[in-house]
Structure formats: structure tokens, C-alpha cells
Amino acid sequence: MPPRARGEIRLFWRTFSRNQLACAGGVVVAVLVLMAVFAPVLAPYDPYRVQPDVTKILQPPSRVHLLGTDQIGRDVLSRILYGARVSLAVGFVSMGIATIIGVLLGSMSGYHGGVVDGVIMRLVDLMLVFPRFFLLLAVLAFLQPSIWTIMAVIGFTGWMGVARLVRAEFLSLKEREFVIWSQSIGASAFRIIWRHILPNAMPPVLVAMTLGIPAAILTESGLSFLGLGVQPPYATWGNILNDGQGYIEIAWWLSLYPGLAILITVLCYNLLGEGIRDALDPRLRQAIGRFVRWGR
């Protein structure tokens, strides 16, 4: 790795590590991901097993069932752990789809300009006219709800912000000297975009991805809560909340714990994204660099 790259990474980490909230958010996100990956090991019970004993139904939190049981005797803790796998997977995959589409269209729009820019930006405006949640409901009305359908629909309706961000970065970067020099020696547009401009435009995209994952998780949870998202028997935080809404007066734990899981996940992802954004801000990094050199 070149010395300059190592210096950039060191400065990024120095800036990021000074933000205690961002570090705490990153730790919690890492723990949540590990819990989701190792859910089959960590879950104390089978999350899909229905208890034949009616005395096991709607049990409050206890030593046997740490977060209680639901209306058909399933362990809530096990369902929340398995629900984390689905909810986080939907967030990652859908935001990955949105990022790929946004980067492709945004890079073409920002680099080529003219008619290409006009067509793509009018498409972005057209997509932004419709409220996203109602657009999702309209699309899902014609499709069979499933995990992959939810991932695809959220991804294909969430790329507009990334496209506008990448376009803005390309409009700025394509006027730089290294791009003009590459054009002067006859480099192809594909090579200039993917080898020179796009790597320099990726830091804001990374921040947008980090902040977009919790939005996708919230969207999936809302759809599942309405019964239009991931369908049973798969456990997600949204459909666990949906199961608990009819028993909120006698079984508060069915709504409290999945709601807390959504709240903590979204909050920590936002803290992590804010920390990454601040660490990638050139003005802040330059100020910290001057402070470090002054301290020496």
C-alpha cells in the first residue's frame, strides 16, 4: 500500500476514533451482525416450534424464556435473533441493489451530461414524485411477497439519492486535472470513469450506504407490520410486532422487545454513518491533522 494511502487511512481512523458515539454505534452494529450470523447457535429454542402445551402461551419474561413467549408458545428471544438475520439481510441487499443502480446512472449522468444527464435526472424526478412507501405498496400489490421480492422492490425504489450524489461528485471531479490529462492521452470514457473518477467519488457513497441500510430496515419492518412484507413462517422484527399488536394489553413484551431491536439498530447505524461522514470530511480531517502536528 502506498505511504499516502496508509496516511489517509491512519488519519481517517484517528478522526473516527475521536467520535465516541460513532465508535459505540459501530460496536453495537458489529454485535448485531454477529448475533444474526450465529443465531442458530445463540437461539435457545426453535423459533418456529409451536408449543402444544397451552400453559406455555403468552408467558412473561422469565428464566426459562428470557423475553417471554408469543400467542402460540414460540420463544420471543429466538424469533428476534432469527428476525435479525432477515431484517439485516434485507437492509444490506436492498441497499446494495440501490447503490449499484445509483452509481451506474449517476456516473453516466455526471460524466456525459447533455441529453444523457437530462433523461436520467428527469427519471430521478419522476421517481421522487411518488411517495416511496405508497409506491412500494402499489408494486407489492401485483407481486407475491417474499424475502427476495422485498429486497428487490426496496432496492429498485431507493437508488435516486445515490444517483444524485454520484452525479454531483462526477460534475466536480471531471473538471480536475487528472481527468483532463487522461482525456488528452486518449483514454476511453469507461476507463476514466471506473479507474479515475469513481474511486474518488466513493467516500460519499459509502456514507450514503451506511445511512441507507437503517432506512431499508425500517421500510421492511413497516411492510411486514402491515402484513405485506416477509411472510410467515419467516420471523422478522416487523411481523413479530404485527403478532403482538392484538395482545399489547396483556403481553407487552411482544411489542416492546422487537421495537427496541429496531430502535437500537437504526440509531446505531445512523451514529456509525454520521461518524464515517465526519471522518471523511476533508475540512475536519485537515483540522485534526493540524492539531496532531501542533501537538507534536
Task: Explain what this protein looks like in three dimensions.
With 296 residues, the chain is mainly alpha-helical. It has one domain (48-267): MetI-like fold (Orthogonal Bundle). Helices cover 74% and strands 0% of the residues. It has 13 helices and no strands. It has helices at residues 3-17, 20-37, 39-42, 76-112, 114-129, 132-140, 147-156, 160-173, 177-184, 189-225, 237-244, 253-280, 282-295. The radius of gyration is 23 Å and the shape is elongated. The two termini are 25 Å apart.
List keywords for this structure.
single chain; mainly alpha; MetI-like fold; 13 helices; disordered C terminus
Record the SSE blueprint.
Layout: H1 3-17, H2 20-37, H3 39-42, H4 76-112, H5 114-129, H6 132-140, H7 147-156, H8 160-173, H9 177-184, H10 189-225, H11 237-244, H12 253-280, H13 282-295
Helix pairs in contact: 1-12, 1-13, 2-4, 2-12, 4-5, 4-7, 4-8, 4-10, 8-10, 9-10, 10-11, 10-12, 11-12
Could you provide a short overview of the structure?
This protein has 13 helices and no strands. The chain is an all-alpha fold.
| Number of helices in the DSSP assignment | 13
What value does the average pLDDT take? Answer: 83
Strand content: under 5%
* CATH architecture designation: Orthogonal Bundle
CATH topology: MetI-like fold
Low-pLDDT parts are 284-296
In angstroms, what separates the terminal alpha carbons? 25 Å
CATH superfamily: MetI-like
